[in-house]
Amino acid sequence: MSPESIPHRRALADRLETAGVLKDPKWRAAVEAVPREVFLHPGVFLPAEGARWRPVTALGTAPEEWLDIAYSDRSLATQLDGHLTADQPAEPVTGVPTSSSTTPMTVVEMLEDLDISDGQNVLEIGTGTGYSTALLCHRLGEDNVTTVEVDPQVAARADAALEETGFSTWTVTGDGLLGHPPRAPYDRIIATCAVRRIPYTWLRQTKPGGTILATLGSWSYGTGLAKVTVSEDGTADGRIIGRSSFMHARSQAAAPPSGDLSARTAYADTERPAKLPPTLLDDWMPAFLAQLAAPGAQLVHASAGGGSQLRYLFDTERESFATLRDDDVRGWIVRQGGPVALWDAIEQALIAWRDAGEPEVDSMWLNISKWRHAYGIGEEPALRWNHYPAGVRA
Q: How many CB atoms lie within 10 A of CB 86?
C-alpha cells in the first residue's frame, strides 16, 4: 500500500462528500482505502500546448507532485493511440487517448447509482486502470467482482495494480460487449465505456430485478447515463439518469470521416433553408436527441472559404449525408443526399423537443427487448424513437 497518500485519500473523500456524490459510508471507506496513484503506473499524459500530451511518470516526478496529480479532480489519460504509455516518450507527443483514469467524482457517483448491497455479484465492463474495480472489491469482496478489459496491455497493468493493492479478483481479457457468461448471472452490470446501445447479452446475464448502468451514445458528447432494471421476461426498463461521458467501446469507436468532404457531398438530392440552426447540436441535450433521431450519423465541423461555417452529417452505412452552410443572406442552408434525410430526422426531433419545453436528458425513458430499444420523453409520439439490432426490421 501507499501510506503516504492517506491524507490525499481522506481529502478526496471529503471533497466528494461535500459535493453530495459520496453518501454511503461503505463507499467512503473504499475511497479512503484504495490508493489511486498505484493504478496510474507507469504514468499519465497531461494536456500540453499545440494539442499535444506531456508524459508524466511516477518515477520521474517528485512524490508530492505525483500525489497531487493522482488525486486531482480530472480524468487522466494513461494510453494514447492504443499502445503508447507515458514511460515511452521523453517529450510531449500528439495522439488520441485510448485509455484513462476517469475523474474520481464520476467513478464514485456511478458506483453510488448502482445501489449495491452486500453479497451482490457485479460485472464491470471496461477495467481501465483498475481503480473502480478496486473500489468494488473493497466494498463487496474480490470474489464478487468480475471485470472485463479488451486491451491486453491495459488489462495486465490493471491486474498488477489490483494484486499490489491486495485484490485478486476475476480480471478477464476479452470483448466486454459479450459480458462474461461463466460468472453469470450478475446482480449488477456497470460499463465504464460508452456503448451505442445496451447489448442484449448483458440482459441475459443479469438476474431478474438486477440493474445495468451504462453510458449510451456514439458521439464524444451528448451521451446519457442509462439505468435499467431487468425483468423476469428478459426485457429491461429504466431511464437516462443524467449526463455522462466515457471513451467508447473499442469495437464501436467510429473513425472520423476522411478524404475530400466536398466530393463526398457533391450530389445532393434536396436543398432548402434549415428550420433550426445546427449550432444547437453544440449543446448536450440536442446532441443526445440527434443521436436518437439519426443513429449512425457523425457530426463534423468545418470552415468554408470566406470564413463561413459548415456542419456535415455522415452516415456511411446508409450512404447518406447532410451539409449545413451558414449563408449571410439566407441563414443556414441544408443540402441532403442518400436514402436517409439525416437533417430532416434531427430537425423534427429538435422541434418536438423545443415545443415540449426543452426537457433535459434525465427526462428520457427507455425500454429494451431482444428485438428493440425504445426511447421516449413522456407520452409525446414525436418524442419516441425505436432502434433495432442489425438484421431486424421495424
A: 25
